[in-house]
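User: Run a structure prediction on this.
Assistant: Running it now.
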Amino acid sequence: MQKLAKPGIQASPARLHQLCLKLMRRLILFVYCLLLSSWVLAAPAEDEAVKPFLEKGLISQLSEQLGSAKDKASGQATGLITQAMDLLGVPYRRGGSTEASGFDCSGFVRYLYENSVGQLLPRRAEEQARSTEVIDRNELKPGDLVFFNTMKRAFSHVGIYVGDGKFIHAPRTGKAVKVDDMRSAYWQKRFNGARRVPLENETNSP
């Protein structure tokens, strides 16, 4: 007997494209983790075999961020950073707050905290700044929030610190989720402050 296709199961071309991008990002992240493990454990003579991979686009971008986050972050923050890296390349979209639709800066932060640690943050960047704990720049740890003045007003842009002076964010129209260096002249000039999101599970732990 011929089986009837269930309505709504077939994916649209746009949905298939999103799935392909997601699979590619996860494959890149997986390959990077394997390479990093090999690099750390390998003899010096084997470094040349790994080097070409580390010099390629996205792999190069991830090289220090994930290692730093893994070493310094708490358990929940490490999961958050890993999930954030999985979203590299998702297009910017003003008002966007899902992987399928794309993200703006605050939508990206809100999505990650809600889906990785179950913490619901306000929607707008300035509201996120007001509702979280103020910390000094030298206190930053992976998973903390970093704010910038990119629209001639305070706290108009937000990203997530990943370690080693880097942060991940959804930059602007025409760009995609990426990692940038806070120490570059552009971001250094516009830095507004740092915040920490109190994580209930870790706050209540002995």
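The mean pLDDT is 78.
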